[in-house]
């Protein structure tokens, strides 16, 4: 039996789509290491439920509640049948104390999340909707994009883009439509996500829009 199988036999659980692993405000007593499936994290902002992350296999979450003994800061919902390791606070502390590699990986992951949070704030501070969507697509392409024959595939829905950029679905569809007309972004044929033809050209598109706005439609 492999080490991974031993871990799953001891700590593993399976969850069907729609399972709420924990809710914002709950007391946290365990963390999760996602091995298969996808989990969506949402947070209530001004009475609206906003998507803050969609986690793929390999990600861990829920650790902050057991590290600092504070209530859950988000709600975690399974959006694709999942398997995960579920680790309580005592086991987590023992793993950190006994394995330097795990501790270093945790520190790196938390630092990465802090950087992502800073990038998210920068996007939300942008006033122009074109800039918000384009900057978000660029960063998603760099962080979670997968090579695709015509470019880079980003596994994200229009609704998720709207939530992350602080925009309405209609505003996002308008910007995506302009990008599609310019042949920079196309909806994936599978119905999930988008394909960015050339990430570098997204910035060129923004500069074109700025010139058009500054000098008029004839630019």
Please characterize this protein's 3D structure.
This protein has about 220 residues and is of the alpha+beta class. It folds into two domains: about 120 residues, Sandwich (Jelly Rolls); about 90 residues, Arc Repressor Mutant, subunit A. It is about 45% helix and about 25% strand. The protein has eight helices and ten strands. Strands 1, 2, 3, 4, 5 and 6 form a six-stranded antiparallel sheet that branches. Strands 7-8-10-9 form a four-stranded antiparallel sheet. α3 packs across α4, α5 packs antiparallel against α8 and α6 packs across α7. The longest helix is centred in the middle third of the chain and has 26 residues. The radius of gyration is 20 Å and the shape is elongated. It starts with a helix and ends with a helix. The model has no long low-confidence stretch (mean pLDDT about 80).
């Amino acid at each position: 039996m492999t080490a991974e199988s031993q871990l799953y036999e001891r700590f593993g659980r399976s969850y069907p789509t729609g399972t709420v692993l924990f809710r914002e405000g709950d007391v946290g007593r365990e963390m999760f290491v996602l091995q298969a499936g996808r989990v969506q994290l949402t947070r209530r902002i001004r009475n609206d439920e906003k998507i803050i992350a969609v986690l793929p296999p390999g990600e861990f979450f829920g650790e902050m509640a057991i590290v600092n003994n504070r209530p859950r800061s988000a709600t975690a919902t399974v959006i694709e049948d999942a398997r995960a390791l579920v680790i309580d606070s005592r086991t987590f502390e023992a793993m950190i104390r006994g394995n330097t590699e795990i501790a270093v990986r945790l520190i790196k992951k938390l630092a990465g999340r802090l950087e992502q949070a800073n990038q998210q704030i920068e996007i939300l501070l942008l006033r122009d909707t074109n800039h918000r969507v384009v900057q978000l697509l660029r960063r998603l392409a760099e962080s979670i994009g997968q090579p695709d024959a015509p470019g880079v595939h980003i596994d994200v829905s229009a609704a998720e883009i709207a939530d992350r950029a602080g925009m309405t679905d209609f505003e996002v569809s308008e910007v995506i439509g302009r990008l599609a007309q310019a042949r920079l972004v196309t909806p994936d044929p599978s119905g999930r996500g988008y394909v960015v033809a050339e990430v570098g050209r997204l910035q060129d598109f923004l500069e074109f829009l700025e010139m058009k706005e500054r000098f008029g439609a004839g630019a």
